[in-house]
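User: Could you walk me through two proteins back to back? I'd like the raw sequence and the structure tokens for each, with a short line separating them so I can tell where one ends and the next begins.

Assistant: Of course. Protein one, sequence then structure:
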Amino acid sequence: MVAEGVVGKKRFRENDTNPDSNMKTTIMLLLAISALAAPNLAAKSKPNETNAPADPGWPRQRTNEQGSLIYYQPQVDTWTNFKDLDFRMAFSLTPKGGKEIVGVLELQAKTDVNVDDHSVLLRDFKIKEVKLPGSDPAKASQLDQAVRSFLPPNHTVVMALDRLVATVEKSETPALVEVQNDPPMIFVSNTPAILLYVDGDAVKADIPATNLGFVVNSNFPLFFEKDSEKANYLYTGQQWLKGASMDGPWDAAPTLPADMTKVANDPKWEQMKKPILAPSAKGKPPRVFYANKPAEVILFQGQAAYANIPGTHLSYATNTDADLFVFNPTKEFYFLSAGRWFKATTLQGPWTYSTPELPPDFANIPSDSPAGRVLVSVPGTDEAKDAVLLAQIPTTVEVDQAKAAAEAKVAYDGEPEFKPIQGTSLTYATNTSEKVIKVGDVYYLCLNGVWFMSANAEGPWTTAQSVPKVIYSIPPSSPVYNVTYVTQNTTPQGTVQASYTAGYLGTFITGVAVGAIIANGSGYYYPPYYRYPVGGYPIYRPYPITYGVGAYYNPSTGAVGVGRGVYGPYAGAAGGAAYNPYTGTYARAATAYGPNGSRTVAQAYNPYTGTYAATRQGSNAYSSWGQSVVSNGNRSAYTQHYSNANGTVGSIQGSQGGAAVGASTKYGNAAVAKTANGNMYATHDGNVYKNTGSGWSSYNNGNWNSVNSSANSKNAQAQSFQNVGANQAAAQQRAQSSQRSGQSAQSRSSGSSEVDRAAQNRQRGASESQRFQQASRSGGGGAGGRGGAAAARGGGGGRRR
């Protein structure tokens, strides 16, 4: 097997068929076990990596020799193929020496999306129409040209993807995946605990010249004495435990077997030297839960504590990282795991899948509640619809065909072995970590989101110009199903473009009668691959797992997570939770390992793709190829719009309630401004509305006139909370909470006027954008929130926002 990834821009490869090399890198994984016990690990940016600035907010202002134009956040009409955007913007024009004039711009633009950092570049502007409600027709032409001068075709705008997605009408039903929804094993503890997971039946291997062996397919270092069936030794990352069997009971180990010294001094086990020879940590050992199938741990800090959620009949658990609720009328527990809801009458179970019959009160959870992040997994909510749309947005690159092909390598454990893919005429390679699929007499390789082809299973490989349609018939029950989310084609210019969506990295769109949602993992159990080379340690290759001990990176939501330790004679990954800035879930410790050391959650291992290159800071499944092999046009957005502004960036605060953050560029002065006039909205009929703090007003011929609206006074008050940057998003969160209080889920999704709906969308997008930016800056460590699998690591629960 070849494990590939990046450390910064550095590429590494490991050949698993070499037993000596295997064992050296095997133990690198064990170093991370100590990291699992740490309360926080801050993600680090890669060297030389460009970090995009946060969306500075709206409205934005431009000045030139004709005056000043303030234009407000785009309101989307259509977004075709996530490339062609038709949208409206309210604006106010103040000509030099003249009075403010308000109007509507109808525009078209091209979009380049960077899913990893949730940014969108709007370029190639085309103004279709300038509407000036009630203006003097004699001056209309002059004003029209003045407005157009501020937004030339070469103008670019970068905005947060969350803001854009929130305004898109979700009218089309996405393609759904029939995932499995069988409940995991669910353990509960009121004291520190860990989950000892063995992937199926234990695979044991002897350690030569000792009386010891180790379990190849466990997520924690697990040793045993060969002459005693009741002497097992488990390293938790902090201390050694001894147990009569893998399922316990486990107690602190007073001493280790004498042969452990031989293991510590063996170069192949170098990374275990310190844990073996250093004194064991004192104190009461954690509780150990044993599972040989996917599992979760609900870990409380002391006795379970719950808080009521206003406006609902729900309570949520306040002293656990898990998303755990009680529906008070029935006293039933609801637990969210991997995007799926399970319920039980007691915490001891049995648990059953319950997403289709989730009580309606879940949709009424206020978005700013500590429990509000679960709205993304509540069918029918705006948050769920946004997440589903995000999961459909592709990441696209252009491939340097020659360089990419030269990099494409596949290593097999022995001669290539292939197994049929059920329900198809295809076969896939079982004794390699790469995704090699045989179609007829041709072999196709999907490596880091790029397709290659060859007449031989071992290459040489050439970059594929297209992909056979039959590959996209692979069912979810296959461990290579995720490649069906990678497409490739040749453009009219002769270049090759490769694209993937969220399914490639393990997040799938599923659904129930009331709406689509996203699920992490397919829910199927893919048995691991084993091989016993002569004279070496067993080769163990796991496949992705959905619950608790699974690992994934979700480009659509920014989720990063590794939930199992992969260890044996090669590098791997360990951890216990996911980081999802969309929902607020975070992983306090998740680490990938390889010959060049370990990396934090920002570079987490992804078993769906076999890479170590996933990060929220702008890289993706393609990043291990480097910019010399693939190019992501989204990178240029930062050079065009931010990095090379040809001037200074600063902020100002006005005495009349105005504020701005801006830069001087060769196209004129640009700024992000909050005006004393508040926010403005453009409706389809060409009118402009704003909220005065006591209700909606529409603009006509220089005057603002009060209008009736379905919004209540709380909504009116909410609209007055406007600010820029982080303060704006925080205010938007407060506004959204105020607006939603007392409203049912049904009234939020229908029945409101066009401006009410536009205001809700704008507030939600600002809130989610701010949440993502906070998460990116914090790197996932200690950002707040909960994650069901995080509890398996023991220790304390997460901080709340």
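----
Protein two, same layout:
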Amino acid sequence: MLYIGSYQGKAVVFHNTWEVPVRDLQGKEGKKIIGRSIVSTLYLGMNPKNPKDKGLLDYVQGMTHLVPPESVSRPNR
């Protein structure tokens, strides 16, 4: 997953995904197969009214911050 910015106040990421949980109009749960790289928010497939729904952030196991070389402090020689 790669953070690429924000849109309407929400983080936007580029990531690979296989499927997304969905519900039909009667509330029956299912899955939508995507099987490709996509750009989405961290709330892909979540219903904000259902606290049991998991967002992508629930699956993140670690983060690496990449910074430009000029922003890294270096000791004086």
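The mean pLDDT is 81.

Let me know if you want the two compared in more detail.
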